[in-house]
Amino acid sequence: MTSIRILPSLKPLSHAISTSLLQDEVKKTLAGCGFIMLALQSGLTYAQTTPPDDNTASTVIVTGTRQIGMKAADSPSPIQIIDASVLEGTGQPDLIGALAQVMPSFNAQATGADTANLTLSARLRGVSPNDTLVLIDGKRRHTTANLSVDGGTFQGSAAADLNFIPIAAIDHIEVLTDGAAAQYGTDAIAGVINIILKKDESGGSFSTTGGRYIDGGGRTADASVNAGFELSEDGFMNLTGESKYHGFSQRSGPDPRAVDPATIAAQPAMLGVAGYPYLNHVFGDAAYHLDLLSLNSGYKIDGNTNVYAFATVGKKDAQSYENYRTPSKFPIYYPAGFSPLETLNENDFALTVGIKGKVWGDWNWDLSSTYGKDINHIGVINSVNIDLYDDTGSSPTSFNAGNFIASQWTQNLDLSREFNVGWYSPLNLAAGLEYRTDTYQIDEGDAASTYGSGAQAFPGFTATDAGHHSRNNSAAYADLAGSPIKELELDAAARFEKYSDFGDTTVGKLTGRYDFNPVIALRSTISTGFRAPTLAEEYYSSTNVTPQSAFVQLPPNSVGATLIGIDGLKPEKSKNYSIGLVIKPTIKSSLTIDAYQIDIRNRIVGSGNLYGTGGSINSPAVNAAIAANGNTLDLSTLTFSGVNVFTNAVSTSTKGLDVLYTIATGLGDLGRVDWSVSGAYNTTEVTQIDQVAQQIQPQTLLNPTAISNLTVSAPKFVVNFGALWKTGSWAVNLREDLYGPSSEMDTEDGSVYYQTTIHTKVITDLDIANHLTKSLTVSIGATNLFNQYPPQVNPGLLAEAKSYLDTATAVRVMPSFSPFGINGGFYYAKMTYTF
């Protein structure tokens, strides 16, 4: 494949980019870990950690049911239990990557552009990341402030950032792959990810990992420590600290300007730039340093009452390359050209405090308050504001582009009690109240970043972009569950929610399971959902630029949006249907098969590019919208300009099938093998497209690119084959991941669309561990062992981009929607010490 042949020549450049940064950042990482160790070492109790139970089917779950003592094997809803040891065995340095390795229905973002590359996202069952609810020990997790605005599968994502949860703090994860809006919140359309924290009151572990991509870049150093403490005889405190560094990777193709004879003749200084002709580093991983700290604690006041608290704190510093500017752009400061860097300084924290117990004899009660906040400081370095220099004679080279800030404050009261009504099992009644306040704000960038057309690569947020927005939400729910007869389990839930900006709604869910015998059971659900737009989707505004283009992201409820026929956003409304089989062929094996359908009306999606200039079709209303939004664009330097906007443009129907099979095989003196096969089939079709406003016709809100991002850019199926062989002190974990076909339509100017297809691909992951002692384990491994890459982007699209000298498109030689990434194999070594 052409895209692979270029990689050997990328190695020196990638090494040069990352080596010096790695040395500094590894020192910071180790220093951070030393601080964490010093903070935790007082009071450590040394004890051997108990190995996790391999039989997760016997785990008592708290997700998908309000009944106390429900086991995963008996759940009427599809629940997948993922033990912490499974996550750690993937070798992935972050939670999103680890979950994507073991859950076929969980699709992780491989790469992004602009700020989207600084906060990667993931989605469940093929719908928006915003349609999955994340809980920590059953309490709602706040969302990121960094909205993904770039086109693609994850466009519009402003979901909870799972990477701010240290893996070492996790006991297990319960993933409910079923609509659960009536149980947990109206946005739980695709399902719920409930992260259960460790509650150990003694012992702990220290772990360190190092790795890199085999073809260069992505150098990773990670260290974490977890420790439990006893608080007298009635309480516990479990602490986790983690520090990690991940370096840049560079997978861009040759810059078309660097091989254009006319450009080189006019700007020969480009020939002397390091890495020539690979001058543009925009396509690859961002570099980041992330420090995390988590706390989980509880204390028994008396026999009926417990108080609890858990918290996470995280700090992230990240940088992502923007497009290279040639020497002619600003030779006074940058005679060899320059590559601006977009920077992120992020502070994220969350705290839950609560008290629970029994009252009035048999009533269980739980009163809690959860507050979370995410603060993103966005900057640009190695840049310049040319308009400012032209008018004043000077310009800074670093800018404060502005801030994103999101917060969420949730109050919950939950009650439950069992009643004997003559059924086989008692009837469980659960009810509760919730009050939530959400805020979202954009702060204006500094004056230099917003002057004229703004800082190169990322103009600061203007006064018209900036604003503070909030809303509140009140909810009440009720849930009835029980077994009228031994073989039948029923569950009915209803939820009423009232939004301060979108009115009220009532959603419901009916669940049933029938066990024909101890071997086979049938389960089914039907539910409805109602997702109000996130505040970020409603109010985000910015200007996204490349050397050749500038597109304004219009807030859907802005004056500019009305000029192109968009009058704000409406809530999504959904219906979920599922039916499944649970089969237990033997004591050591289980099989679950669940089919589902998710219908979403008024789905919130990002538009395609709407051109004001440069496109094959242009609309004067687009330029009027840009002006009405208060944006200034220098059209004399741009090939393309236009707008993007979020809109309720479509209705979709997603159909799928999830399969999970596990079995253990004893091999006598050779040990034991735990086999697993899990698969997910998923397809989405657009069932309705809203009529486009007359003022932008014949352009359409959803071009073929936007539609393909909804329907075919995710793999049609994913199958994971796993074999964990344990013998003596050795453990060998082999995974074969089969990714089905995926594709995308794309265009340079809106005239001709080219299809890029990733055909079915097998990716191999391997982890080999040895328990040197009872406490010390070392392992080596690889994800994507055989260094596989997706195919090259459609040659027609690349040729057209090169004809425009459009570096932003031409250097993206591999499809960014690749489900197994763009970086090839990642090799790592790991050491874990338990105490």
Polypeptide structure, described:
The chain has about 850 residues and is mainly β. It is about 15% helix and about 45% strand. It has 14 helices and 34 strands. The strands form four sheets. The chain has a 22-stranded antiparallel β-barrel. Strands 1-6-7-4-5 form a five-stranded mixed β-sheet. β32 (about 760-770) and β33 (about 775-785) form a beta hairpin. The two termini are about 50 Å apart.
Report helical residue fraction. 10-25%
For this structure, the quaternary state is single chain
Unreliable sequence segments: 1-54
DSSP, total strands: 34
Integer-rounded radius of gyration: 27 Å
Distance between the termini: 48 Å
Using the alpha-carbon principal axes, give the shape: globular
Strand portion = over 45%
What structural category arises from helix and sheet content?
mainly beta
Please give the structural blueprint.
Layout: H1 2-5, H2 7-41, E1 79-83, H3 84-88, H4 95-102, E2 106-108, E3 122-124, E4 132-136, E5 139-140, E6 170-176, H5 181-184, E7 191-197, E8 204-213, E9 220-231, E10 235-246, H6 261-266, E11 287-302, E12 305-321, E13 341-359, E14 363-381, H7 386-392, E15 399-419, E16 427-443, H8 447-450, E17 467-482, E18 488-499, E19 503-515, E20 520-531, H9 535-539, E21 542-545, E22 549-554, H10 559-562, E23 572-583, E24 589-606, E25 610-613, H11 620-628, E26 640-666, E27 672-689, H12 704-711, E28 717-727, E29 730-739, E30 742-746, E31 754-758, E32 761-771, E33 776-783, H13 795-803, H14 807-810, E34 826-834
Parallel strand pairs: 4-7, 22-26
Antiparallel strand pairs: 1-6, 2-3, 4-5, 6-7, 8-9, 8-34, 9-10, 10-11, 11-12, 12-13, 13-14, 14-15, 15-16, 16-17, 17-18, 18-19, 19-20, 20-23, 21-22, 23-24, 24-26, 25-26, 26-27, 27-28, 28-29, 29-32, 30-31, 32-33, 33-34
